[in-house]
Specification:
Helices cover about 20% and strands about 35% of the residues. The strands form 7 sheets. Strands 1, 2, 5, 6, 7, 8 and 19 form a 7-stranded mixed β-sheet that branches. Strands 10-17-11-12-13 form a 5-stranded parallel β-sheet. The chain is of the alpha/beta class. The protein has 3 domains: about 190 residues, 3-Layer(bba) Sandwich (FAD/NAD(P)-binding domain); about 130 residues, 3-Layer(bba) Sandwich (FAD/NAD(P)-binding domain); about 90 residues, Immunoglobulin-like. It is built from 7 helices and 27 strands. Helix 3 packs across helix 4.
């Protein structure tokens, strides 16, 4: 059994940022474990630009963004293993993993950073009627086929769900010569970034059908078409609104789920809203010495935010290994008030916060001209009028530590009229 100071599970943008930050904070013995054939995670198939505006102050493609971190990882001589599957993690931080070179291995870590990312929700989670013809696949799978494997998935496509990957693939298919008939979204608002709606749909005259869903899939061996219907406020199809679209390809962009099978085996506490671990200000989970960051905690819309959050996890994992994290019985709870779907972090030990407390949150609906308000118990410490807030765009707020009274028990974020 090998002894490693810090093991990072996942070599995507979150894992890379966490490992590099830990090294810069004095941890020498680090191992990154990645199950895919290359480092970089999902970024390697995201060949479009739009990455790095906040992290590097320039616009990069996904592979370019990933390679900045991969190059830094190699310069710092941080050990990594690709094509390596982590099978199990115990509460006392023993990792069991396997690959073709080392075979079965066990590693004892002083600290662990979980950075496994997320996975796509599949057709099985939607219960769409119809048979199982070829041509129905997730948007991320189609992206990998086209951008990395060099295969075109179809000639005439429809997309269900307006998540960012689905919007981007609407544009990608069009650029590759396919016809995209439209995008159906069951919610009355899009789940993607507004810039992607403009650049990927409106710029290519691809219609977005809000409050619509697919009620039937036609075809035996190959997809022949889909039936789309409008839905009511209860998201039930409205009879008489059905419309048939002849197509050979259906892409599903119906949500992402944090990849937490390994986290469950450790006994970590979860947030039912995000489906990710409950974390504190240090990105530490409920299990001592086990940290989590990136999409395994909550789904981000910008990789720049993933990197920023993961650097915090790497920094505090280093502090944990060196015995520099301050334990305190005084814990501030974050509360999602009116209009707020969730907040990360969930618990705050204020003694570990330096100058700013950084919180991430999403709203539960589309709101216009609301005041985003933060209260320390009953005292308002932050108030800002927002012209528009949408569930598809994550909000990040820096709270000045000096504004938080020492005896604070709860920090509540809510939306107010004034």
């Amino acid at each position: 059994m090998r002894n490693i100071d810090l093991v990072v599970v996942g070599g995507g943008p979150a894992g890379l940022a966490a490992a590099i930050e830990a090294k810069e904070n004095g941890v020498e013995n680090i191992l990154v474990l990645e199950r895919d054939r290359e480092l970089g995670g999902i970024l390697q198939q995201c060949i479009h630009n739009g990455f790095g505006l906040q992290e590097f102050n320039e616009e990069l493609t996904g592979p370019e963004y990933a390679n900045r971190f991969i190059g830094n990882l190699k310069e710092k001589n941080i050990e990594y293993k690709i094509d390596t599957m982590v099978l199990d993690i115990t509460e006392d931080k023993i990792i069991s993993a396997i690959n073709t070179e080392d075979g079965f291995m066990q590693i004892k870590a002083k600290a662990i950073v979980l950075a496994m990312g997320c996975r796509e929700r599949t057709r099985g989670a939607l219960a769409i009627p119809g048979k199982r013809p070829a041509g129905v696949l997730t948007a991320g799978s189609a992206q990998r086929y086209i951008n990395m494997e060099g295969y075109m998935v179809g000639k005439k496509a429809f997309i269900l769900g307006s998540g960012d990957i689905g919007l981007i693939m609407a544009r990608r298919l069009t650029l590759e010569g396919a016809e995209v008939l439209g995008v159906a979204e069951i919610m009355p608002y899009s789940g993607g970034l507004n810039r992607n709606i403009v650049q990927c749909l409106e710029d290519f005259d691809i219609p977005l059908y809000l409050s619509h869903t697919i009620v039937d899939i036609k075809g035996e061996d190959r997809l022949e078409g889909v039936v789309v219907a409008e839905v009511d406020k209860n998201m039930q199809p409205i009879k008489g609104t059905e419309k048939y679209y002849e197509c050979d390809t259906l892409l599903l962009s119906v949500g992402l789920i944090p990849e937490n099978e390994l986290s469950k085996s450790i006994g970590i506490e979860f947030d039912k809203t995000t489906s990710g671990p409950i974390v504190n200000e240090s990105m530490e989970t409920s299990v001592d010495g086990v940290f989590a960051c990136g999409n395994v905690v909550h789904v981000h819309d910008l990789v720049d935010y993933v990197s920023e959050e993961s650097k915090r996890a790497g920094k505090f994992a280093a502090k944990y290994i060196k015995g520099e994290i301050k334990n305190s019985e005084k814990i501030i709870k974050t509360i999602a008030g009116y209009g707020v779907r969730y907040i990360v972090p969930h618990d705050i030990r204020i003694v570990n916060v330096q100058e700013k407390l950084k919180v991430f949150m999403r709203v539960s609906d589309v709101y216009k001209n609301k005041y985003l308000t933060i209260k320390a118990d009953d005292k308002i410490i932050y108030k800002k009028k927002e012209r528009q807030l949408s569930p598809g765009e994550m909000e990040m707020i820096d709270i000045d530590k000096k504004l938080i009274p020492e005896d604070t028990k709860n920090i509540e974020i809510e939306l107010l009229e004034e």
